[in-house]
């Protein structure tokens, strides 16, 4: 039986989470994915505020080629996460220290292994400028248009219809930036194919196949038919793929 202590006394005083070295405050979903994908490893995780409202948090976890986000709720000092409720912060962090195994609709399993620290050592080294000249003239601040690919990663098994022989085979899919890749299996390092979403015109549910939970991606040269394990999982894939297409169109 644990002994819980709390330093949380209200919004005007220091939040107890500030003592947690891997709590990243208002780090955005985009920034969390950038951190974990560039500098984390499989099983790296961090806690951040959620945009769902006060006392709502997100546990962002690196899962090989994607980052998954899980909801954490705090109410009256108690923390709800997954199927468990913890009576205090100490119990919640102790649970994470015991490397819990998480599973999601994708069918993939993730072990929480390494908390990603809020403070990471960085070298105080700067490059010397050797060349500095403008290659255009007449431009102003209004011509500086911020640009970066939207992250929004996802991965999981889907059943795909073949292009020539119309049979169905299970493949491992990963979504990162504007690329949707599929592999023979999760353990294969090289993808069978990489689909460039900038060439995709539509993502939608499909009812033309004799299968359930199907959706399709429409490209100029081919329409790809995919099936998920459940309607919830199919809906998640469709939502994030449609969001990707909307971001691509905004950048054009």
Spatial sequence of strands, sheet with the most strands: 12-11-10-9-15-14-13
- Proper CATH architecture of the largest domain: 2-Layer Sandwich
Structural class: alpha+beta
What is the arithmetic mean of pLDDT? Answer: 90
Q: Give the topology string: H per helix, E per strand.
A: HEEEEEHEEEEEEEEEEH
CATH superfamily of the largest domain: SH2 domain
Q: Enumerate the spans where pLDDT stays under 50 for 5 or more consecutive residues.
A: 6-12
The description of the largest β-sheet is: 7 strands, antiparallel
Organism: Ictalurus punctatus (Channel catfish)
Membrane topology: Peripheral membrane protein
Main location: cytoplasm
Pfam families: PH, SH2
Describe this structure in words.
The chain is an alpha+beta fold. The protein folds into two domains: 16-115, 2-Layer Sandwich (SHC Adaptor Protein); 152-251, Roll (PH-domain like), CATH 2.30.29. It has helices spanning 29-39, 89-97, 231-250, and strands at 44-49, 56-63, 66-75, 78-81, 84-86, 101-103, 109-111, 114-115, 154-161, 168-176, 179-183, 193-196, 202-205, 214-218, 223-227. Strands 12-11-10-9-15-14-13 form a seven-stranded antiparallel β-sheet, covered by helices on one side. Strand 1 and strand 2 (56-63) form a beta hairpin. The longest helix has 20 residues, at 231-250. The chain is globular. The N and C termini lie far apart (58 Å). The model is unreliable at 6-12 (pLDDT under 50). One of its GO terms (cellular component) is membrane. Pfam families: PH, SH2. Its main location: cytoplasm.
């Amino acid at each position: 039986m644990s002994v819980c202590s709390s330093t949380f006394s209200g919004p005007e005083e220091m939040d107890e989470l500030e003592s947690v070295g891997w709590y990243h405050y208002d780090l955005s979903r985009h920034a969390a994915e950038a951190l974990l994908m560039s500098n984390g490893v499989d099983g790296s995780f961090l806690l951040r505020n959620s945009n769902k409202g006060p006392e709502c948090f997100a546990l962002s976890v690196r899962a090989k080629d994607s980052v998954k986000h899980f909801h954490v709720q705090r109410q009256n000092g108690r923390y709800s996460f997954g199927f468990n409720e913890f009576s205090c912060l100490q119990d919640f962090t102790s649970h994470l220290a015991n490397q819990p195994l998480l599973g999601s609709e994708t069918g993939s399993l993730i072990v929480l292994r390494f908390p990603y620290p809020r403070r990471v050592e960085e070298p105080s080294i700067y490059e010397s400028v050797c060349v500095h000249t403008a290659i255009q003239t007449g431009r102003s601040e209004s011509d500086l248009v911020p640009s970066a690919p939207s992250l929004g990663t996802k991965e999981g098994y889907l059943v795909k219809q073949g292009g020539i022989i119309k049979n169905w085979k299970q493949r491992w899919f990963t979504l990162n930036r504007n690329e949707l890749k599929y592999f023979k299996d999760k353990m294969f390092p090289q993808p069978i194919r990489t689909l460039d979403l900038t060439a995709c015109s539509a993502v939608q549910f499909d009812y033309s196949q004799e299968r359930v939970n199907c959706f399709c991606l429409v490209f100029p040269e081919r329409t790809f038919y995919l099936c998920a394990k459940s309607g919830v999982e199919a809906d998640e894939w469709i939502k994030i793929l449609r969001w990707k297409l909307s971001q691509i169109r905004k950048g054009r």
